[in-house]
C-alpha cells in the first residue's frame, strides 16, 4: 500500500474555519484528520501540503517512520506550525491504519481503558458574547444571561463548564490581551475591575448551574506571574475545579501552583515530549492539557505516559470540530490517567453535517466511538456546501 494522493478541505465555521486533511492510498483506503489554522497558525495548510509532497509513494502504515522523517526534515525549525502539520499527517495515517486493520484507532494503542468520557462545556458563554447570531443562540449580554446559561448546562446533563474572562461593561467584551483579540495594549496586568468582573461571572455561573456543576476558568496568556497570582488568589475560595493558566516558564507556573488551593491546569500550547518534561519535573501542574491536534495522537499518548510517571492526570485540548473530538476520544480511551474531556457545545448549525457519524453524548459523557479508524469520515459534500468566507 502506498500514499497516492493528498487533499486539504475547508468549511466555513462562522467566526473561524474547519480544516481537514485527506490522504488517499493506491488500495482505496482514505484517512482523514482535522486541523486548525484559525488561531495563530496562519499558513498551516501550505506547510501541510509541502510536507505531504515528501511522503507521496510511502507506506501509510509506517506512520512512526514518516513522523521521524518529517521531524528530521524540519529539525532546524522545530515545533510550532511544522509540528502541527506533522500532527495532521500522523492523525490521517492513524485513520488509514485503523481502517486497514478493521479496528478503532484506540485499539492500536491497547485501548480502550474506558468506554465513556466525562465532558466539560468549553467556552461557555464566550462564543455567545460575539457570535450568537452565527450559532442561532441567544446572545450573552448580562449576568442574568450567565445564570440562565448555567441552568441550561445543568439541564443538558453536563457536570462541568469552562468559561473565559467575560466583562459585562457597556458593551460586554472578552478580555483577551494575551492574544491581542480586541486590539488591547500588550500590558498583561490584573486590574481591579477585571478581578471584580471575574468574581461576579463565576458567582453567576454557580448560581445558575447549582452545586452539581463544577466551574473551570481559563485565564489563557492574559497575565504575567504576578497577575495570575492576583486573580487566582482573589478567586481561590470560590471552589473552582481548576484555573487554566498558560505559561512557557515551568518555574513560574510551579510557583503559582504552590501558592494556591485551587488546582492548576496548563500546557495546551506545548509541542513535543521535550517541551513537557521541564513542567513535569517542576510539578508545575495538577492537570496536563495535551493538544493531540498539534502533537498527533500517537505522540500525545507518549506525552500522557510520561505525565503518568509523574503522577499527573491529562486532559485533551479540544475546541475544534467533531472529527477533532473523535481524535480526542481515541486519545482519552488509550491512556490510564484521563481527567476530563473538553468539548465545544455552542457552534454553527451545520457542524453535525460535516462528518458521517456525529459523536454521541449522553448525560454529559461522550460515548466511546466505534468503527474502524476514527469511527467517522469527513462528509466532503457538506464541507463543499459551506466554503470559507475568509
Structure write-up:
The chain folds into 2 domains: about 5-105, Enolase-like, domain 1 (2-Layer Sandwich), CATH 3.30.390; about 110-370, Enolase-like C-terminal domain (TIM Barrel), CATH 3.20.20.120. The chain contains 14 helices and 15 strands. It is of the alpha/beta class. β8 (about 215-220), α8 (about 225-235) and β9 (about 240-245) form a beta-alpha-beta unit. The protein has a 6-stranded parallel sheet with strand order 5-8-9-10-11-12. A 4-stranded mixed sheet has the order 13-4-15-14, with helices on one face. A 3-stranded antiparallel sheet has the order 1-2-3. Helices cover about 35% and strands about 20% of the residues.
Structural class: alpha/beta
Would you identify the CATH H-level superfamily of the largest domain?
Answer: Enolase-like C-terminal domain
> Largest beta sheet: what is the strand line-up?
5-8-9-10-11-12
Helix fraction bin: 25-40%
Key phrases:
single chain; 390 residues; alpha/beta; Enolase-like, domain 1; TIM Barrel; four-stranded mixed β-sheet; 37% helix; 18% strand; globular
In brief:
With 390 residues, the protein is of the alpha/beta class. The protein has 14 helices and 15 strands. The chain has helices at 44-52, 63-73, 80-101, 126-130, 132-135, 143-155, 192-209, 225-235, 250-258, 273-281, 292-295, 297-309, 322-334, 380-384, and strands at 3-12, 17-25, 30-35, 116-122, 160-163, 166-167, 173-174, 214-220, 242-245, 264-266, 287-290, 313-316, 341-344, 361-362, 365-367.
